[in-house]
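Possible regression after last week's pipeline update?

I re-ran a chain I had predicted before the update to compare outputs. Posting the input and the new output here so someone can diff against the archived version. Not blocking, just want to make sure nothing changed silently.
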Amino acid sequence: MSQQMPYSINTDIRFNPLELIDVSTIIAECQDEWFNQTLSKVNDSVVRLGIVRGEFHWHKHDEEDEFFYVVDGQFFIDLEGRTVELGPRQGFMVPKGVMHNTRAPEGAVTLMVEKASVIPTGN
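New output (post-update):
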């Protein structure tokens, strides 16, 4: 998958405190190949939902760590020198400053936890 796909990245906070977050409904309504929605802010961090198929681009976050948790599907995190494969109910943290590329050839649903200041496409 060498061509870059269009991304739908929504950094607005979709749900307020004490509001039910129904991930199944968001998944059912999603029409994008690479969708990222900030669900909620928790202290200085945000929880984002990724509904993805295809490949992102190589990038890094200079100041923030990034945690991925797979809800559904197979999700790959390419790092320099190795690839981490995640399945449902598995997570992985990429430390700040580490180049990485995420991909889900068959599609995946992930939750990401990161500082609210992170730029999702990288620095």
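Follow-up from reviewer: compared with the archived run. The chain is about 5% helix and 50% strand. Marking as no regression found.
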